UniProtKB/TrEMBL annotation:
It holds the Pfam family OmpH. One of its GO terms (molecular function) is unfolded protein binding. The keyword Signal applies. Keywords: Signal. It comes from the Bacteria. GO terms for biological process: protein stabilization. GO terms for cellular component: cytosol. The keyword rRNA-binding does not apply. This is Periplasmic chaperone for outer membrane proteins Skp.
Amino acid sequence: MKALKITLGLAVATSFLAACNNSKPDTVVTGTETAGELGAPEIVYVNSDSLLANYEYFTDVRDRLQGKATRSEQDLRAKAEAFQKEVAKYQQTGASMSQSERAATEERLAQKQQQLQALSQNAGNELAGEESEEMKKIYDRVEEYLKQLSEEKGYKMVLTYSRGNSAILYSDPSRDITETVVNALNEAYATEKGEAEKAAAEKK
């Protein structure tokens, strides 16, 4: 069921960091920019490949949506196989039916085929919508933290870097704040997840 293939991958997901760029650099980033507060550089970058690979919230979302897609696909496959059996049975017995019986059976099978197609389309749309909502949440989490961090460190611009899909050809590794961002996001998510699990346990 092609409609249910997860699109949560780096090619799509890196876009959630794009708005963190105030502008695209016309040249490569070097170490010559004016330092911000406490000697921190004014321009830094985040490796979106590493961020997505190590951000636990993203991996949890990806695993959950992949599981949902697999279950939906299995359910639709089972319905499609049952439908094919009905079609095969009709092909074997149709010759012995009256004209009215054949017409009624063919109409019923056509309606069932349309229902299966609608189920597949709806399942794909539902998953795509849920994925879009989750990517917005991830974007918002990252953006909120980067704004906070930039205020603390004096950063004027946070760029996003993804190998093979970036305007940055080279940057001093000291400008890479990916580890700091990932650690902070994971710490916040772990706290949030723990509180949610505690609240759920108390309700039982």
